[in-house]
């Protein structure tokens, strides 16, 4: 028995040493094999436990329960770090793939290290939409015995990456040969529960394709001050009387609710690259006369049935001071304030087409005009094959001599 015990002790040392060396043991008995397997399993378990615990400890300080928690911790950390001129704690909040219209991760590093900051340095963030922020960096710097005010601002975006939140920027999707402006008509209202989620996705797409995508917000609710007159018997009737939120892309693809928002962007990308069936050009307007805007546009086409073609014209405002009730600070934007349409039957190609559109509400905000030609089989109900063929937009002159 004593000899067996001594052998086991010697084997125990041999097994542990060989495990770390990676050598193969010459097993002479089943007792040795069982002892080896147990020991190896135990050590593997310990190593995995250490690794997992290490990962958890590594991410512990940068795991956030919500975007609001991320915002609070970022501002506190960033301002303390800037005052000590140590940006390493700040950069932990930026994803390594950060790209804000071509400004990469290293460009943010360059910004935060561009000056020797004083105790007056201040970084602030303002939420403009659920995931859209305006950041401002200011300081009072002394150069050549003169005090100079440092000021820079930029828009940025927060996204969840893996288990955490991070600043990611806006990354435009480059299309080599874009063909046209894609229009999304969105049915919404300020007290709608899921509308802010849809609006946020449309806003992202607008950022990705700033010159080739436009969403229009048609507000429809008896208690919504931005609601359009007669929307129920015109647009909603044609769309099939949907409930908000509802999005119609290029007059062709309708999406009810918020469960299909991931389908918007790939569809928009495809539509941008489609060659138009006709072309609009030479869009012109006169200044507002009271609350009515007069304009004209030329249409070039061939081999089209003009009895199915309609010219639409819409005036919208970029941003309002009205907030969505469930939007976490999201403002109403691209709000339709006046619209109209008429049939293009018997139109001659390259002729000017005149139109006028009246504002239902007059405010001090900037106005934009968008016009498009749409193929419509039945003006009372959307059919397969209906679609927007081409569109143009422009900023329009301010409302002049109108009592606001």
How many β-strands, per DSSP?
Answer: 17
The number of domains is 2
> From the alpha-carbon coordinates, what is the Rg to the nearest angstrom?
31 Å
Largest sheet: 4 strands, antiparallel
| Overall spatial form | globular
Low-pLDDT stretches are 1-32, 54-61, 400-404
CATH architecture of the largest domain: Sandwich
Going across the major beta sheet, what is the strand order?
3-4-5-6
Q: In angstroms, what separates the terminal alpha carbons? A: 105 Å
User: Number of helical runs?
Assistant: 8
CATH topology of the largest domain: Immunoglobulin-like
User: Mean of residue pLDDT?
Assistant: 84
Give the SSE order as H and E letters.
HHHHEEHEEEEEHEHEEHEEEEEEE
Regarding CATH, which class of the largest domain?
Mainly Beta
- The computed structural class is alpha+beta
Structure characterization notes:
This protein has two domains: 67-167, Nuclear Transport Factor 2, Chain: A, CATH 3.10.450.50; 182-395, Sandwich (Immunoglobulin-like), CATH 2.60.40. It is 26% helix and 33% strand. It has eight helices and 17 strands. By secondary structure, the chain is of the alpha+beta class. Strands 3-4-5-6 form a four-stranded antiparallel beta sheet, covered by helices on one side. Strands 8-7-9-10 form a four-stranded mixed beta sheet. Strands 14-13-16-17 form a four-stranded antiparallel beta sheet, with no helix packed on it. The model is unreliable at 1-32, 54-61 and 400-404 (pLDDT under 50).
